[in-house]
Structure prediction request, 186 residues.
Amino acid sequence: MTARRIVVIGGGPAGVFAALPALSAVGAPSVASYLRLVPSHWAGVFQCWGRENREAALRLVTGTAGDEGRSANLEVKCFDLSANPYLVAGAVLAAGLAGVGEGLRLPREVRVDPASLSQAELTEAQATRLPQSLPQALEHYSTSTVLAEALGDPLYETIAAVRRAEVALFAECTPDQVARATRWRH
Prediction:
């Protein structure tokens, strides 16, 4: 199976792609997470995908030369290490399975830094800016039936409550204050 074929038949990657704005609340869970989500800094701030594209939020890593079909994997660039790995794994798997169940397909591949594209080119590629703050991510999370169903009401609501509490805690802080307060937390 080649990397190209994985992408063509991959409803799972398309499900993850579709859920990226909501998944941001799980995979970029802190106010500080959004300080690093800057275009053209390999952070994957645009909802797009690409082979070996370090600027795409969903990066297909094709594997080593000669072994691409057996060792390809997906990297979700917009997540960070402040995320709970168990919640991330469960949420990403749920989104992927939903994509398979719905028969979703990925839009066309973005092969360049999406920040270099015009708005018309971004629209044509179906590439949009992912949430730029935890409150924006929470807006998407609050409408995600996939995540609500997969996590169950108690966990789904707890995640939202913890994220809202962090937003309130840092509401009056500057980016430097947020960075200083959270630098060694996770």
